[in-house]
What does this fold into?
Amino acid sequence: MSDVAVGLDVGGTKALAVLVTRQGEILDELRSSTPHDSHGGAGAATAKVLAEQVATFAQRHGLDAATLPIGIGMPGMVRRDGRLAFAPNLQTVSGASFPELLNESIGAQLVYMENDGNCAALGEYAWGAGRGIDNFVMVTLGTGIGGGIIANGELVRGQSGFGGEIGHMAVQARGALCGCGGYGCWERYASGTGLARLTLEWANEGRLPELTALRGGAQNVRGEDVTRAAGEGLEEAVTLMNDVAWWLARGLANLIAILDTGHFVIGGGLSVAADLLLPNAREYLADLTFGYDKRPPVVVAPSDLTVHAGALGAAKVAFDRQP
Amino acid sequence: MSDVAVGLDVGGTKALAVLVTRQGEILDELRSSTPHDSHGGAGAATAKVLAEQVATFAQRHGLDAATLPIGIGMPGMVRRDGRLAFAPNLQTVSGASFPELLNESIGAQLVYMENDGNCAALGEYAWGAGRGIDNFVMVTLGTGIGGGIIANGELVRGQSGFGGEIGHMAVQARGALCGCGGYGCWERYASGTGLARLTLEWANEGRLPELTALRGGAQNVRGEDVTRAAGEGLEEAVTLMNDVAWWLARGLANLIAILDTGHFVIGGGLSVAADLLLPNAREYLADLTFGYDKRPPVVVAPSDLTVHAGALGAAKVAFDRQP
It folds into this structure.
């Protein structure tokens, strides 16, 4: 039983590696770019980057890759057997088996895979904003919406390991087309791309006149313009961010009805806009939640572990699943 | 540890009582009407009916109410402490504590409460169509949509015990007004009242011409007319039932995304229309489910325990929770 584990969080652009103690203390940290060529087969280039990160930790800290527990968090549908069934934002790695690839390259024997949202949930549960909360949902607001569900103190992995894909719950049947091929998915309304979509829609409808003038055309207004302007108090931008907050609350209220979630932890890239979104989302919950006044107050807390949540959770997976 | 338990399933019109062995065998069964006056305080009249059912079992089978485990399934928000927080279809019992009331009237000491959809899930898990399936969702299609979630082999009760209110997940934001005060709840589209609402809407729009002529006016066409006519192959009725099946699938697909449910058990009053709904709902799932082709086939099975699911599950609750 190793006292340390490696957590790898593989995103669409960066791979973050951490070396972590059983108490969740980060001893070392590395960042690399995620490669996007598929030379050598599905995932080979990505696996090479991860292997180098692990090898660097091993060398610096005198560890043996063969006995080092390694957890990998991946954006996509990760099967219980560790194979990546589908990764819409990392097409070159779909189908890859990283446990096999890392074994071949550096002799790693204890490699475990999990969805990145599930990792974030496990990280926050062990060492962050979900500590001691046996029923909570992690919501990662990034390009899309990911997440992970803790119920009865356990991660809800589901039949195949695909549990927690909360961003693909439809909140508007026959609504906006999603990258997954479905319509009306939550992430089309309350994520980074949701914000971008609403921004373009509003700008084209003439509902963002000042930003449109400033950027020299409706098609030039970006989601970042809206969050920045909303932070500075520009009314048209504040109004749009309120709409995003409403959609955020709409999805949270669904999860409350289904799971009786009393606690949410909000992370991911868009959570930089947390100050703009969370206070309003909390207020909208009162209107949108089934039996709201019969429940204890619902906590909507920002992530504690922020950018490290996924990598720390991946390390937790490695600690928990090693034999 | 008693070898038998009582399961009580309290509906809006009937209270069903069963005396059950640890193997799920029903030894005796009683049906009573649910009273709707609130004379004597919240739940007193209902508690009296339940006490009589238990007393009848005790007398017939030589049992002692004080040592007999009794489970009660209730439609509504049942708190973990056994108090009924809210029962929209049983207003006269909201706030009642049945463990206290049954203790006062017949000396019962082992009384446990649970939501009726959760009871049905536990019943099917123990002795029915969910046996051996550690991740499944029970869906009860009745007046509304109830349900219960089994994840990692355990019931998802959530923070307060209100888990599994899947009918109040919004599938159409700002859609049809629901009895709960919310908008666009799943049960407004795919339950008995959902069918009734769609029937009226379609009849008023002239989309049910034959049934409207037959019943002498759009306002006279009922949901039952549609299910009967659809069973006989009338095209306009078949088309409407397909729409209901689509909405049923829409909600199921959301639960698959969130929980990675590979198995559904469909029960409740409207499941008499299962032959009309389930085959089409299964087909629509292929279009509506996130990453459908990456998953094993999703099973949508009818309830095994049918009308007894809730009462049997209530007995299971009593067996499991007795000290």
About this structure: The mean pLDDT of chain B is 94. The radius of gyration of chain B is 20 Å. Chain B has two domains: 4-121+308-321, 132-303. The domain at 4-121+308-321 of chain B is CATH 3.30.420.40 (Nucleotidyltransferase; domain 5).
